[in-house]
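Crash report, auto-generated. Payload:
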Amino acid sequence: MPELRKDPVLGRWIIIAQERGKRPSDFVVAEAPTVGGFCPLCPGNENTTPHEVLTYGRHSDVPNSLGWKVRVVPNKYPALVIEGGLNREGEGLYDKMNGIGAHEVIVESPDHEDVFFRLAPEHMSLIFKAFQERIIDLEQDDRFRYVLVFKNFGKAAGASLEHSHSQLVALPVLPRKIESELAGALKYYNYKERCVYCDIIHQELMQNVRVVCQNEFFIALTPFAPRTPFEMCILPLKHSSAYHEQTEEEMFALAEIFSESLCRLDACIPNVPYNFVLHTQPLRSKHLPHFHWHFEIVPKLTSIAGFEWGSGFYINPMPPEEAASYLSESLERISQEDDQK
Amino acid sequence: MPELRKDPVLGRWIIIAQERGKRPSDFVVAEAPTVGGFCPLCPGNENTTPHEVLTYGRHSDVPNSLGWKVRVVPNKYPALVIEGGLNREGEGLYDKMNGIGAHEVIVESPDHEDVFFRLAPEHMSLIFKAFQERIIDLEQDDRFRYVLVFKNFGKAAGASLEHSHSQLVALPVLPRKIESELAGALKYYNYKERCVYCDIIHQELMQNVRVVCQNEFFIALTPFAPRTPFEMCILPLKHSSAYHEQTEEEMFALAEIFSESLCRLDACIPNVPYNFVLHTQPLRSKHLPHFHWHFEIVPKLTSIAGFEWGSGFYINPMPPEEAASYLSESLERISQEDDQK
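Recovered output after restart:
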């Protein structure tokens, strides 16, 4: 059973997910394995994954069979396990509990060669809908307080399988970063009686130097204080703290802006590894006037070294205004270059 | 001029250290360059670095000449610059200021081939003394609030030069991680009227399952909730919040325990890349009953992916009790293996 442990000073939780029998020499510097021939996420191999919890696009009623467009399965090597009680307990001054949680894989397409950001919005919106549906389902489990949805694209960003997929982890505690965001946003709200994210959107539209693109429902921008070059944030224009309550129309618009933002990023730096994460309200929360759900997209372009580990400070060699300007011009530049050929 | 920017929600500061004329294609995934023939930190090349601010071991009075054992110079490519005022200002709801600070390199030995953890304690203690002396000197500059001392060893941990060196950055704001540690420790102190680190040391000595090694003045242990396999923490046994006030005898004992801890780590995983950071009290602080200075040593063995970025949670595949057991037996195991040959 994995274990959750809390740092007694920082309150930061960590998961001890012991891989049995690993010796020190097995901890070589993280380099994700390439899957040679066999892919457990490809159609035809449905029986090699744990039983699916959700699919879209299949016309037959036979579970774990062919014909799906998007498929959600429990992770075969989960960081947390679904069965058991939390068993919160102390060890002297330390706190720990069982590593209970859900860890699921969202297989984004049956086609092994498909790349997330090149999927048609009709298809991509099914993935965003799957995130919603899984959050709504996991919310019913009282042991869980938060569902973190994220994607690792490219080996350098931590992806261990080539086949396009994202992941979610349901956690029995509120992650420290979400807690900090909620606290920071509440502090601003208590002072101004306005949502800080709504104010950011308002200012970004006025200044128009960090906007990457926008549509009827969403805006993509480079944040004022980004951790890495080309970091982006996608926010709904209308205030909402609950990602899972967005309409299908909005999910389609989300797919459109996501696809455009990542195409622009790829046009700037082809095949750049990146992570994205969804920050939404905690499970079973009421609507929050101070919090605004959003996606953060973080390209893997700088290394986290002693200074960053020690301080929580980041050194970023590219101002977000310059990144936004490259991003917003990137597709146009490429099509001009094509015209000139 | 670099710029400091504050995230409006999290309060996290970042440094925009723009490298002029960099195009998106220049941001290839971080891979530190090897220095082929020429090393700016080697003896004989003293004139290729900015003017030294401290040396130990040189008998002559000629600055920037040969004969030193440890040499401190300003970083030639600093993340922050030393000249100028802070100019705190707003940009709508955002906060920023000039990127003012000191960024120095501690050249740990004249010998290009020397490895930090193999230096004799007499030599290594000079490095720890240099950290002290630089903190005391930079404390006089009212613009600075904190000096962060750190080391990147190995390319994967962010080292860009082969020649053994550590670094320090004097900052005009308190880093978020230090702020969190101070706040967490104060919360515990207000509740218990005891230092949380003193309590940790007491419990670790009692339990004796996470102790790596100890001597008259220091203890090295694997923390209860470590972020990575083989993470270690070195703390003084006697309460003190001020690293720069430790005696020469203590600095010698620190060199001894540091050397032993890193030799044990190297015996477990040869040449493992790692970072270390010093956490001490803020500049011009009075003695803090709740804070206890310490070094954190973080081997680079796991990758920071979407889950960690999004949550601030870490997944660690090795329990610290197991790591401590490997570490505490490592040197003995090697010497036994040698005996059997």
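Post-recovery validation: The first helix of chain A runs from residue 121 to 138.
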